[in-house]
Amino acid sequence: MLDFDTVTKKHSETLIRQIVETWERYNHICQEPRSLEDRWARFIQETNDNSAPLTQATSA
User: Fold this and answer.
1) pTM attached to this predicted model
2) What is the rounded CA–CA span in Å between residue 60 and residue 34?
3) pLDDT score for 48
4) DSSP assignment, residue 32?
5) Segment (H or E) for 60
6) Which residues are CB-neighbours of 45 under 8 A, at least 6 positions away?
7) Nearest 5°: CA angle at 29, between 22 and 31?
8) Distance between alpha carbon 48 and the CA centroid of its chain, in Å?
9) How far apart are CA 44 and CA 5, in angstroms?
10) Are 23 and 47 in contact (CB under 8 A)?
């Protein structure tokens, strides 16, 4: 997982805020004020393809 501190060391906090705000706007996420770090954690959790349930292919 890309933790907030690691990402902000490589990229500006402004860029991280723009990514999160764009994702929240696109997904119609409106909520009480939260820290950027909490919002980043939610973004990573909800966009993590590795946590998606696996589907089994059925053989015919």
Assistant:
1) 0.70
2) 49
3) 86
4) S
5) none
6) 51
7) 120
8) 7
9) 13
10) yes
Structure token digits, residue 31: 């909520």
The 10s digit of each residue's pLDDT in 21-42 is: 999 999 998 877 899 999 999 9
Amino acid identity, residue 13?
E
- Contact criterion met (CB below 8 Å) for 20 and 43: yes
43 CB-contact burial (10 Å; exposed 0-12 / middle 13-18 / buried 19+): buried
Q: Where are the beta strands (DSSP E) in 1-60?
A: none
The answer to whether residue 57 scores a pLDDT higher than 70 is no
Tokens of 10: 């490589």
Here the contacts of 40-47 (C-beta below 8 Å, separation 24 or greater) are: 40/4, 40/7, 40/16, 41/4, 43/19, 44/1, 44/2, 47/23
